[in-house]
Amino acid sequence: MRLGEIVSLLGDGIHGTPTYDETGEYFFINGNNLSDGVIEIKENTKKVSITEYEKHKKELTDRTVLVSINGTIGNVAFYDGEPVILGKSACYFNLFSQIEKHYIKKLINSSYFLEYALKSATGSTIKNVSLKAMREFCVPLPPLPEQHRIVDRLDQLMARCDELEKMRKEREEMRLEVHAAAIRQLLDPTAFATSCANNLRDFVPSCETDNPFAFLARHFGELYTVKENVAELRKAILQIAVMGRLVPQDPNDPPASELLKEIEAEKQRLVKAGKIKQPKLLPHIKPEEVPHELPQGWEWVTLQDVGFFLGGKTPSKNKPKYWDGDIPWVSPKDMKCLEIKDSEDHVTAAGVESGLAIIPEQSILMVVRSGILRRMFPVAVNNLPCTINQDLKALVPYLSPFSSYLLLMLRGFEQFILEKLTKQGVTVESVKFDEFANTKFPLPPLPEQHRIVAKIDQLTALCDTLEQQIDAATGKQTELLDAVMGVL
């Protein structure tokens, strides 16, 4: 049967704007006030006077079903005596007594009605279902007792679905907590051992080892079925790498102190050639200044020990000759990946001559002023010469072979940089640059840097695969659910 055959009345609200009255006792509602069987009176719902109500009121009863038919399609509510007048996006119809209104609600909430409504709707951006289409909607109508049984059964199934969803969320939360505990122990075994609250046995009483590597390996398939854990794994891998715990040290590697001698020689060559100014002599790092003991062959360095910084600016937007050239001009909006191959905006040679520095390729670009520093520290390597704006800094390594490791190192210390080396301004966050440039970071021998970068690439590919598998599994679950619901 068609919907028009099982109702005594079908219509919509006024096609215009009533006269509002802040002191009125009646509300002007539309489709966005309809929600899961209930008319919602919101804080911003407009009021009208009794005179306006009498002018526009409709014949609403306890058999009235309301449906949104404009904009958001398919919101449903029952009329329960609320003091309201309707707008045009609210369709109403009064069902005959032998029709179970809860059955009709569930039918309208189904994909069956939504597909029909969208197919029948007009409008390109804001969809509208006509009253004619509503009247002609075909209603599969069983006998009244069966309508009641269908409603009861669906309510039972939905309640079971709610229980399963609650159980799923609880399981996911536990999985995240267990993973977080193991990751904390990986990153700081000493602090972990002294903190009862962080012990794996707090989460997993049957855990027979405090070895986080063994625990993660044994429960890998269970822990890495959610993207949140994969994201934390990515961070942990980087942090472990820059702590010297990702790959074994090789006593045959030339120590980082030899690399620093090469860097110093290159620095002096650039000074002599007039390409850079003589850097300010920094005091030798004293034993009491060392944050912690390093692996064999590693050295503590500041960023100014291994490279020099360049800044940027924004050429005048009022001078067209500075813009739309072929020289990349990198700003924070371009810092969404680890390699800069181009930029959204470009400047001309005249723009460069206005005071922009050309950043050599294989430099480390970093955002030092932006609201994004509240949650991340964007860094990237530029694969071509470029310029940058004032919100970025570029670290130009004296020796390019370890640019990849410097990038990895800054990513590994992201949380430390955000917590200790940034400050909050009036509108945006910024890096405390002098302190940042003089902060001590651990530097491994050059061969070990290469091994670390290769291992990170390998593990990053594994994380990418894990996320793809999670997406695929989620898609299969959705397909299965759709198939089941289609049968039901």
Helix content: 40-55%
Number of helices: 17
Which structural category fits the helices and strands? alpha+beta
The span between the termini is 21 Å
What is CATH's topology name of the domain at 256-284 and 293-445?
Answer: Adenine-n6-DNA-methyltransferase TaqI, Chain A, domain 2
Strand-residue proportion: 15-25%
Biggest sheet character: 5 strands, mixed
Q: What is the top-level CATH class of the domain at 256-284 and 293-445?
A: Alpha Beta
Rg over alpha carbons: 33 Å
Explain the overall architecture.
The chain is built from 17 helices and 21 strands. It has 488 residues and is α+β, with helices and mostly antiparallel strands. Among the domains are: 3-141, Alpha-Beta Complex (Adenine-n6-DNA-methyltransferase TaqI, Chain A, domain 2), CATH 3.90.220.20; 256-284 and 293-445, Adenine-n6-DNA-methyltransferase TaqI, Chain A, domain 2 (Alpha-Beta Complex). The strands form seven sheets. Strands 11-18-15-16-13 form a five-stranded mixed β-sheet. A hairpin with a 2-residue loop joins strand 3 and strand 4 (38-39). It starts with 6 loop residues before the first strand and ends with a helix. Residues 189-209 have low confidence and may be disordered.
Which descriptors apply to this entry?
single chain; 488 residues; alpha+beta; Adenine-n6-DNA-methyltransferase TaqI, Chain A, domain 2; five-stranded mixed β-sheet; four-stranded antiparallel β-sheet; 41% helix
